[in-house]
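Review this fold:
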Amino acid sequence: MNPLAIVGAFVITLSFLSYGIGSISLVRFNIVGRIVVAFLSMGVILDIIAITLMILGSKGSPFTLHGFLGATAFIVMLVDAIWSWKMYIANGRDCKARKNHIIYTKAAYGFWVVAYLTGSLIVIWR
């Protein structure tokens, strides 16, 4: 496996953990606060880095089923982070999360888990 792809796989795991901490905190405590937006943002930034590294380190085309799932999961994740930032800025620190935002965050995290697991399975089966 290409060293860039290996580093990308490591960074994607850090993104998975960061975004997971932010998402689970938002859902568990129903609050969009400093910690939530920080972890969601870090998850997005790390995901951008990981996607770039994995594309550069991959021999194949990024236009695969996993590439589509990953890109879609990233967009869903980015929308969640932007939505959280908008709520945080508009309503002040530690604002109460709305029910539709909590549902979206759960769905976004679940979709991200599916994309992460499909990528992991692809690496294992190669």
Remarks:
- The chain has a mean pLDDT of 91.
- The longest strand covers residues 31-32.
- Strands lie at 31-32, 95-96.
- Residues 3-29 form the longest helix (27 residues).
